[in-house]
Amino acid sequence: MSTPSEQFGAGPDGWKPTAPIPSWRPETEKPSYLNLAKFCLHQLEEGSALYYGWIALLALLIYQGIGPAVEQALHGAVVSNMSDSNPWGLHIANFTFMIGVAAGGITVVAPAYVFHHKGMKDIVVIGELLPIVAIIMAVLCIFSDMGRPDRLLHVMPPFGILNLPSSMLSFDVVVLNGYLGMNAFMVGYTLLKMYFHWPEGRFYKMVIVPTAYISIAWALTIHVVTAFIFSTLVARPYWNTPIAAPKFIATAIATGPAILILLLQLLERYFKLKVQEDVYRLFARTAFFALGGSLLMMVSELVVELYTGSEHSLHARYLWLGYKGHAELLPFSWGSAILNISGLVGLYASGLGKNRRILSVAALCICLGIYIEKGICFMFPAYVPNPIGEMAVYVPGAHEIRSVISIWAIGLLVFSLMVKVAVPILVAKMSSAEGTAPAKH
User: Fold this and answer.
1) Nearest Cα residue to 208 out of 121, 118, 286
2) pLDDT attached to residue 138
3) Neighbouring residues of 250: CB distance < 8 A, sequence distance ≥ 6
4) What is the pTM of this model?
């Protein structure tokens, strides 16, 4: 019979268990990197008809976007509805929203590592997977918007020049890759730690915890830098506002909990993941105050823009009231405001997380409202009218819509596969702590 030291892998500190550990692990009683790889493959291969149907649907949506991607790579952005007057379109709108989703991971990492909230610590892996997927989708949006992704080599040494600190785009490249790396590192270590029963030793305290603290500040940085990219473009007065960065942060802190509220309930239903009620209540309180701050900043902007009536307010007037017979964005501006206010009222009506049904509806309203606000309502009005006064209205074409759908499908596929592997390990860890057998998935 093998000893516990032979059965269980050593952690980064060289620690090995000195007593037998209950064999709660899925698939095998003997943990090893080889068995972990086999377990991951087994999880990805097996599933219900619903799982296979979901994967097939995402694969189909990805496939329909290959044609537009190849066409744009060959011919450039000329095949889209973008122009010299509207150089940024639907892809950059989705990029802006995705950066907010990535920054929203702070709402899990901060309570888990800084305040040692047990419920948050149990699901911290989910909160770290979300930014990984969001950044992947954001990068894909940039690739698609560039027309020819090979142009990215211009900012990648040794092929090009990163051009720091002169270029805000270069700062964005650095902070996005740094945040992606930190989250991937923490997720990988956390899952290995659960699988091998590594203790919270020196490596955890001296490497993982400091990395978590840095990632919290870094999460704010990625959205601040994104806001600076827009607000420093002097030719677009609609974006020249000093509250762009704090508003981006507020909407990110509202979006993150809203998405996680919906995701965790799906994981509870289909994976039997146990989420403490305190987690939903903390998410509800966080989203409530963040969304309230965002709405206050929106009202402040409207008062300043519409009350002064200067030439620089034409973009806001076009967005909220219409201008020169053009009112294409009115349904989106007022729709996003109604959704966000409904989400705020819904959070309060749910008892800040006590009523799960109302909470879910409120979370959905927030996700849709902020997506419209940060995407369509923030991006498109900046170009109408253009700097020479022309009403060059931008409407995304079928090419761009298909491409964005494909990017969303890629993100959902990556997240689904990662969750399919990670959540059973989380469930098994919780079952081990409670002394119960984990459920089959």
Assistant:
1) 121
2) 94
3) 290, 291, 293, 294, 297
4) 0.87
